[in-house]
């Protein structure tokens, strides 16, 4: 069972059956007990009315009741019967309705003893009876013990219970079916956003749509946002790879043309050899840069959190060793628990290239400040600021350094591929890169990478 709708409907069906089954059984038992109590009370009422209607003579003889409490006592085979017997079994009086009946009436009950129960006649027909033992007033000359019995056919009770059960179970079945239909409609309406996601994903697979564009409820909005981020990341990676390959091909044209020209020359001029060496070095830098662009991971909705402080310590320790002769005075500001949600190599490239440029161009001082943006968020952003006391990049060339999409062979000379790589990685994460004058006198480069 792989369908969510089927699972929920089966679960709802089982719950509805159990609920209405227990409810129906409880109501059935309750009604049956009430119906049986009502019949007992009815028989008890007949008994008291019979007692009031019957008279005894001074000789202890029973006088025929002049007014019976229920007309059915006078109708043969009416379903309501009565009999009075002495405790020795002698029949004193039988209602007209029981004259031709073979009902086993009770007798022999002592004074004050009452008995409710069921009995059957010789044909197996069931009856409900009430018997009560009395004795005529002992001050009379002839006190005797009698048993009064009132009997009613159980068919009426069974018919009432059967009719109630038909109505009860029919109603419960109808209500249960209605609830299941309503549940199915609610499920269909409630799961519509998931079907919409499926339909949009099919359109994305077929190239009809670039991303999920529906207005989804809060419960699945995070899922759709993450899918859109993943799709955007995939599209950006493809675009970045295509751009990198195109730039690589374009950038290598000029160096290759010069190498071809020099290779066709027979000259052994040292200047020519230096030119060849320069072009080879330039091609090596171009290939390194384009490969780095192609392998940039970029923003991902599923990247794990990376602790920044250990990585920063490792990079700065290495740079302290490389530029030991400069005796750089380093100041760093980073709070505990600062994290980066992205690729570890991308973060190393950003911090490594910016810090390397700062160490390379500084006089004696470098400052590094790193903090999380909106740290209480699930995936906070990251701010990296590195400044030095060096000469800095001339203002007229800052815009060219920050320009995105510019090829490696068009970058500002003297700043290598470091700034280009950082700018491209920043772009892949949807961030910003800003170059300004720092408090130390040189450049201040600030990278802001947004959170999710």
Automatic annotation (TrEMBL):
One of its GO terms (cellular component) is plasma membrane. Its main location: membrane. GO terms for molecular function: phosphorelay sensor kinase activity. It is found in: Membrane. Its EC number is 2.7.13.3. The chain crosses the membrane at residues 6-27, 168-191. Gene3D superfamilies: 1.10.287.130, Histidine kinase-like ATPase, C-terminal domain (3.30.565.10). Keywords: ATP-binding, Kinase, Membrane, Nucleotide-binding, Phosphoprotein, Transferase, Transmembrane, Transmembrane helix, Two-component regulatory system. Residues 247-452 form the Histidine kinase domain. It catalyses: ATP + protein L-histidine = ADP + protein N-phospho-L-histidine. Residues 188-239 form the HAMP domain. This is histidine kinase.
């Amino acid at each position: 069972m792989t369908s969510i709708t089927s699972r929920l409907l089966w679960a709802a069906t089982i719950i509805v059956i159990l609920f209405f089954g227990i409810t129906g059984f409880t109501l059935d038992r309750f009604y049956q007990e009430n119906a049986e109590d009502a019949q007992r009370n009815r028989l008890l009422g007949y008994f008291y009315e019979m007692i009031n209607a019957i008279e005894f003579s001074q000789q202890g003889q029973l006088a025929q009741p002049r007014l019976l409490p229920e007309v059915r006592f006078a109708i043969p085979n009416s379903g309501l019967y009565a009999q009075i017997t002495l405790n020795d079994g002698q029949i004193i009086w039988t209602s007209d309705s029981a004259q031709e009946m073979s009902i086993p009436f009770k007798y022999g009950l002592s004074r004050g003893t009452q008995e409710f129960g069921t009995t059957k006649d010789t044909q197996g027909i069931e009856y409900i009876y009430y018997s009560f033992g009395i004795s005529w007033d002992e001050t009379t000359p002839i006190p005797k013990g009698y048993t009064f019995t009132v009997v009613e056919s159980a068919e009426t009770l069974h018919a009432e219970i059967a009719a109630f059960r038909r109505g009860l179970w029919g109603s419960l079945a109808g209500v249960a079916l209605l609830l299941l239909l309503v549940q199915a409609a609610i499920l269909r309406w409630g799961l519509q956003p998931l079907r919409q996601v499926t339909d949009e994903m099919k359109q994305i697979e077929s190239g009809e749509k670039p991303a999920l564009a529906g207005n989804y409820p809060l419960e699945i909005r995070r899922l759709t946002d993450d899918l859109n981020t993943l799709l955007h990341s995939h599209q950006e990676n493809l675009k970045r790879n295509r751009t990198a390959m195109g730039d690589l091909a374009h950038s290598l044209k000029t160096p290759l043309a010069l190498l071809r020209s020099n290779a066709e020359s027979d000259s052994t001029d040292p200047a020519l050899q230096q030119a060849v060496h320069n072009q080879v070095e330039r091609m090596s830098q171009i290939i390194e840069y384009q490969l780095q662009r192609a392998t940039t991971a970029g923003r991902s909705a599923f990247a794990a959190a990376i602790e920044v402080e250990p990585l920063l310590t490792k990079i700065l320790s290495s740079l302290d060793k490389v530029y030991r002769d400069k005796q750089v005075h380093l100041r760093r500001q980073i709070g505990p628990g600062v994290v980066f949600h992205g690729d570890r190599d991308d973060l190393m490239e950003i911090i490594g290239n910016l810090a390397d440029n700062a160490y390379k161009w500084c006089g004696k001082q470098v400052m590094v400040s790193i903090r999380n943006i909106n740290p209480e968020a699930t995936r906070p952003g990251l701010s990296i600021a590195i400044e030095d006391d060096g000469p800095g990049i001339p203002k007229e060339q800052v815009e060219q350094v920050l320009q995105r999409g510019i090829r490696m062979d068009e970058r500002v000379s003297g700043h290598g591929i470091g700034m280009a790589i950082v700018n491209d990685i920043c772009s892949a994460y949807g961030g910003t890169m800003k170059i300004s004058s720092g408090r130390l006198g040189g450049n201040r480069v600030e990278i802001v990478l947004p959170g999710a």
